[in-house]
């Protein structure tokens, strides 16, 4: 009996780590599908020459679908078993991917891409699932581990897509994703436990309740705005980087901008570490440091308009800052209302992506008018907005 008793905690810890690794894989493999099409636009033009001017719609509708899926599907994790939802979305995703791979016209590819975007929100079931499985003292680390998988999926999706398309054609990219998802589904069936629904609200009231959560929890509003401001700063940089590298003195093509994404893996690797610090020191302290790092990154960017080394250093600091804040914010909001984690996550992520869209728009407007220095100042302004919003809420009211 004593041997069993002493081995149980270690065995449970190994089991939890295995489940978190599986959830990280689910998040990464699923979210990668909304980025696979971005390097393939030239291939689409060749396959559909009569609709070449419309190929840019493909990544746009995929992102739109993801936003819609976050709002309409992600809250269902509070109402139904997340394991079953993940499996159902994988089935739907595989159907959409097969349609995309076999698309005879660009119109069919656009419709399939919209469906892929909606269903890729599997990732938004995996993160709150991790928060449910982990003990409160390890929630930050658990969320960080799953987020690291999601971030690696985002970073490596374009690289994988480009390599597969180079040797096997663009249709094989979607086919390879089907194979990966089906293999993942088998592991999910064998290893992932069922989750316990925490709400019995009808679908309409489930969606409406998200507004009540926003009104009820000041800390959710604060975390959402802070996250949105930091992601806006992040998006300003990434939306303009290729334009900076294309001009003097670099004269580099889009492939160079893609390689900077690999540098951003530092942020993904830092995510679990940020989660551990959030568990030990408290998430608000980590968010404060993260905001300082983001502001510092844009100071480095402003001084690095002609320096690749400076840009690389800035990217590492920016990604670590943004991802550490993301993990800490999510750790905070999941503690607000444990029976509504999927809905809380939806509120936060919708605000987060609105911030990203705003940042991309500001970057597009500032670059032609004020150049790289203007872009760097705009990034500092968004970091300042995050700081003002974060620090104006007393720590005692932030829970």
- Which superfamily, in CATH terms, is the homologous superfamily of the largest domain? MFS general substrate transporter like domains
What is the level-2 CATH architecture name of the largest domain?
Up-down Bundle
User: How many extended strands?
Assistant: 0
Give the CATH level 1 class of the largest domain. Mainly Alpha
Query: What Rg is obtained from the alpha carbons, in whole angstroms?
Result: 21 Å
Overall residue-averaged pLDDT value: 86
Alpha plus pi helix count: 15
Low-confidence stretches: 1-7
Largest sheet, in brief, is: none
Span from first to last CA? Answer: 41 Å
How many separate domains?
2
CATH names the topology of the largest domain as Growth Hormone, Chain: A
Structural class, by secondary structure, is: mainly alpha
Please write the string of helix (H) and strand (E) elements: HHHHHHHHHHHHHHH
Explain this structure to me?
- With 399 residues, the protein is mainly alpha-helical.
- The protein has two domains: 1-197, Growth Hormone, Chain: A (Up-down Bundle); 201-399, Growth Hormone, Chain: A, CATH 1.20.1250.20.
- The chain has helices spanning 2-31, 41-47, 57-72, 82-101, 106-119, 123-133, 139-168, 170-191, 203-216, 218-246, 254-263, 265-281, 283-302, 308-336, 341-391.
- It starts with a helix and ends in an 8-residue tail after the last helix.
- Mean pLDDT is 86; it is low at 1-7.
Task: Provide a brief overview of the structure.
The protein has 399 residues and is mainly alpha-helical. The chain has helices at residues 2-31, 41-47, 57-72, 82-101, 106-119, 123-133, 139-168, 170-191, 203-216, 218-246, 254-263, 265-281, 283-302, 308-336, 341-391.
């Amino acid at each position: 009996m004593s041997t069993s008793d002493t081995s149980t905690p270690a065995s449970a810890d190994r089991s939890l780590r295995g489940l978190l690794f599986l959830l990280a894989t689910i998040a990464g493999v699923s979210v990668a599908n909304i980025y696979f099409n971005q390097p393939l636009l030239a291939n689409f033009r060749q396959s559909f020459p009569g609709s070449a001017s419309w190929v840019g719609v493909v990544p746009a509708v995929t992102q739109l679908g993801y936003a819609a899926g976050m709002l309409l599907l992600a809250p269902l994790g509070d109402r139904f078993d997340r394991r079953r939802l993940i499996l159902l979305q994988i089935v739907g995703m595989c159907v959409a991917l097969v349609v995309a791979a076999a698309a005879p016209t660009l119109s069919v590819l656009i419709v399939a891409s919209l469906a892929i975007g909606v269903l890729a929100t599997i990732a938004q079931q995996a993160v709150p699932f991790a928060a449910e499985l982990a003990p409160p003292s390890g929630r930050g680390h658990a969320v960080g581990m799953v987020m690291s998988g999601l971030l690696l999926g985002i970073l490596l999706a374009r690289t994988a897509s480009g390599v597969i398309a180079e040797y096997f054609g663009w249709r094989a990219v979607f086919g390879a994703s089907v194979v990966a998802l089906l293999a993942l589904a088998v592991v999910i069936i064998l290893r992932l436990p069922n989750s316990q629904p925490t709400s019995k609200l009808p679908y309409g009231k489930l969606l409406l309740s998200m507004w009540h959560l926003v009104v009820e929890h000041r800390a959710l509003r604060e975390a959402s705005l802070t996250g949105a401001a930091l992601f806006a700063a992040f998006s300003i940089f990434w939306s303009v980087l290729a334009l900076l590298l294309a001009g003097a003195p670099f004269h580099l093509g889009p492939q160079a901008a893609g390689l900077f994404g690999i540098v951003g893996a530092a942020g993904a690797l830092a995510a679990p570490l940020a989660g551990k610090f959030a568990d030990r020191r408290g998430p608000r302290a980590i968010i404060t440091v993260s905001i300082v790092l983001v502001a510092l990154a844009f100071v480095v960017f402003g001084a690095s308009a002609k320096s690749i080394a400076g840009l690389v250093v800035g990217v590492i600091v920016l990604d670590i800052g943004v991802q550490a804040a993301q993990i800490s914010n999510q750790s905070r909001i999941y503690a607000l209302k444990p029976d509504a984690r999927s809905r809380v996550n939806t509120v936060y992520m919708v605000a987060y992506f609105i911030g990203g869209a705003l940042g991309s728009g500001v970057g597009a407007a500032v670059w032609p008018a004020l150049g790289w220095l203007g872009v760097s100042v705009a990034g500092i302004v968004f970091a300042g907005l995050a700081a003002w919003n974060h620090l104006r809420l007393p720590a005692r009211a932030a829970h």
